[in-house]
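User: Hi! I'm a student and our assignment asks us to look at how structure tokens line up with a sequence. Could you show me two examples?

Assistant: Happy to help. In each example below, the sequence comes first and the structure tokens follow. Example one:
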Amino acid sequence: MSQARNHRPTIRQQLSILVAACVLPVWLIAALMARHAYVTKLDQVSRDLLENARAMTMAVDRELANVEASLSALGSSPSFRGRDFITLHQQSKEILKNYPGADIIIADRTGQQLVNTYRPLGSKLPKRSNLDVVRRIFEEGKPIVSNLFRGAVTKRPVIAIDVPVVIDGVVAYDLSMSFPSQVLSSVLQSQNVFKEWYATVVDRNGVITARTRDLEQFVGKELTGDLRPALSRSSEGTLLVKSANGAATFSAFCKSSFSGWTVAVEVPTDMALANIYSWMRWAVGVGVAISLLGILLASWLANRIAKDIQALVQPALAIGSGTVAPAVATDSKETSELAEALVQASQLLQRRAAERDEAERQLSLTIEDLRHETGERIRAMEEVRRQEQLLTQQSRQAALGEMVGNIAHQWRQPLNALGLLVQQPLLFHELGQLDREFLQEHVAKSMAIVKHMSQTIDDFRNFFRPDKEKLRFKVADEVAKVLSLVDGSLQALGISLKVLQEGDPVVEGYPNEFAQVLLNILVNARDAIAERAVAVPSVEVRIAEQGGRAVLTITDNAGGIPEEIMERIFDPYFTTKGPQTGTGVGLFMSKTIIEKNMGGALTACNVDQGAQFRIEV
């Protein structure tokens, strides 16, 4: 026992754990905040990169569009119609004042240069090096922005914008301006908001056309790494890629709809996330310092609390021995109040013991009263159960007697027909007309009647079979089954039966008990019609579905239910038929089956010329 006590945690340990438990959520929240800040920073960097890429793409498109506009203006010069290439050379020089380092070339359909501002007028000029662009200009008649290529004269990597010169509706010349990639690099640098970021322009072939850094090292080389497949999959986006030296960089790219080129903006991850890393280091340092300070404070408080609690051991032992606890002094208010409470508790124990003895005596008396009352309630419940069983038995006996009458009605006509068939062989034998064909036909008719009577027995037997569990059944099927049982007795009284159906509702419950309810109501309607000798008797059964529930109404024209007994027709043992013909439990059991067993409602009311019973399940 003492060994187990030694293994229990001390107050100092528990307070340290408490501080750790309090600090842990703070660390978790701090970690979540740090992760949120990190993710937010990543999103911000991605958005800024993509916005910068879009802005640079627009700036590049704007520069290319200005070049195209200048060329289109030059292409409208009347000097082309007169093949005045000297004037065109001079006009080109004027335009190039706005584009330092650029050259203008005029070529014919074969790609032969006619004017090249890079060479003096009259110099021998070669064919264009990018003949595919020349061919497309004459075939398509639309401006074209070329990929990066080396000029046939300058031998330097250049970019060209070609526009067609149309004379009389026919493309006559290819007018092109080629300029070095440094022009686009200058455009990128002017648009670069964050100077530590760098941008790259890639042409349609994936070749680096311009760059804000290390232009001579990268221009003319194909783009490599993870960025190349990303450009082929989407027109714009962001991703994390590995550079050639293994460093991770954030990249964003945007493809120009004007030229088909792509501008990519990149920044090293360490540089982009430098601020968030610094903030996280500062937050971790402050958190560690606060946590250590809290643990030291908890240890000091634990020593004080443990001392005060140990002082309460002697008063507690005194209470256990039944003596008055001695007063002790402690440093904290709570332990002082606890010491006083221990003294008061020792004084109250004797009074509570006496009160407990009195309460136990009162409890014994109360238990005896409850035992007697419980016995009375059990006997009352058994009597109610016996009465319910008696009512159920009487209801089934009444229904059974009714079924015997229905069997008699159902069998009367088949028996008469069977009697006639029995007499026919003797008559045909005396007439000399008895042969095998007659006997076969006679036997077939007799067996059909016998089979029909046997089926009637099966129907009545199944009708009284009790349902063990709830089933889903169609209301129309149970109506048809009951009508097949009482059809003979209704026809014997000349009662016209009409069945109307709107929809095919399905309910969950006990089909045989539901059929018994319908049988009770139909028998009551039949008896009322017979008792009152209705001239043109009729019964209408209507099946419908309203508000997701099945509704069945049975309406007769027997004159209705007297108002003075309307409220009593569902009471047990209440009947208007007399003791010889009614027990008064049919409608009572019907209401019990519908409302208690199946959770529905059974009501009755008078309508024009008769009564109507409504079953809603």
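Example two works the same way, sequence first and then tokens:
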Amino acid sequence: MSVGESVSVTVSVAVGIWQTVWRGVWAVKWRSVALFLSALVPFGLLVDIMPAGTRYAVGLLGGLLAIYLGWSYYVVERAPQYGGLFGARALAVGVVGYVVVIIALGWLVPSPIALVHLGAVVLIFIYYWFIAFIAFFHDQIGRSKYEPEPPYPSLTVLIPAYNEEGYVGRTIQALLDADYPTDSVEIVAIDDGSTDETFAEASAYAAAFERVSVVTKANGGKYSALNYGLLFADGDVIITVDADSIVDRDALKYIVAPFDADETIGAVASNVTIWNRNSLVTRCQQLEYTIGVNIYRRALDYFGIVMVVPGCLGAYRREVLTEVFAYDPDTLTEDFDVTMKVLRAGYRVSVSDARVYTEAPATWSDLYHQRLRWYRGNYMTILKHWPIVTDPSYGYLNRIALPFRLVEMFFLPFASFVVLAYIGWLVLAGHLLTVLAVFVFFTSIVFLIAALGIQIEGEDWRLLVYAPLLVVGYKQYHDALNVKCLIDVLTDHDLVWTSAKRVEQTQPTESETAPVSDATSD
């Protein structure tokens, strides 16, 4: 090769490298990077004002958890034969030993307040630099690992409906309008013994569209309606949609994409968005969904252990639902329960970019009744699947998902009130600056997590106004309800379904419920 040719090749390689680097720089979502790294300021200030012993204690526990997570990754991915070593139970024992050590070294004063405070600080570190970081990374490389490509599988969409007059028609119409091959979708609405015009409203669509059918049964609950609907399902993928939810136009394509890409995936979750944001309650719920549900799901997606496929839009392989015997009657949260059954059967559960719009409770009373069912059902489901906690063969589900969920459900609600009592004591003792400093720190972190979630999810930036309520007010409302529901589950085994009132539960107009023909919907 001549000198001229050598120079030409060198220049071409250099240009290629430069173009690759330049495209990479432009592909970076710099606003997300700036938001994520800005948390270094409040965390740095917190570390700076901590007593030396507290810094050592936080660092030691952080190191223990980092070793645990690294070991968990190695065991699950590379050496499953060592699954019984340093698992979730060993971690619990290690944490107890850690508490003994830091007390013996004088790094922590032995009191409930000190332990809870230390736990809260460590958890906020973990949530931001582990869970939020994974969601941030998820956004940087592309919000979804799965892009929809034909050929698309055949679908059966199940819509369980009880007294959904004025809603079920809109739900069916949105599915008919979805961008999906019409010959590959069948829609089955299941009237679960409604006492209003739900059956008639759905039947109008069945009369107008061959791919819509309506079946009816005596009222037996959502789980029984879904099981009954499965008897009429022919699709390879089963999709469930709540009768008060409206799927985005491309939602069906996105929610089935993971099945084609990975045969180990048994179920797929959607991205839930609240459409009725006209009150303080609903706006707080949307912010809660953005940072507490959707971001958390995206983090768990990396491990294939998304723990809840939401009932408002979820997808399952037909054979997987058959294998786990579909829906059970023994919890109040059939979506959480069936997802856990899919995970226990050895399948991965992923998240997609499929978006669904759903109605949220519009008053505190309605929110109370909705969450009463949710939180009772959550505790019932965790207790039902308790063997996962002690069985290391469940991999990431045992090592990562359940420990986080147990802390969230059994520690945080009680710790919240211990901290609240401590803050009350500080105020009475005149330590107002200390209380203000703690409030500013936690609010700033929640604010940054909320901003990151809004950036990732493309949400309304005005929701940031409500971030402080997720520290004081809205949070304690849910913590108190969690404590009540745990007591209910432990003391009363005959709990009933509770639900919120519908915002638009009135007789709909003809234009709201009349089916649109196939020609019009196209």
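Here is something you could point out in your write-up. The beta strands are 155-161, 185-192, 212-217, 237-240, 245-247, 265-274, 314-317, 348-358.
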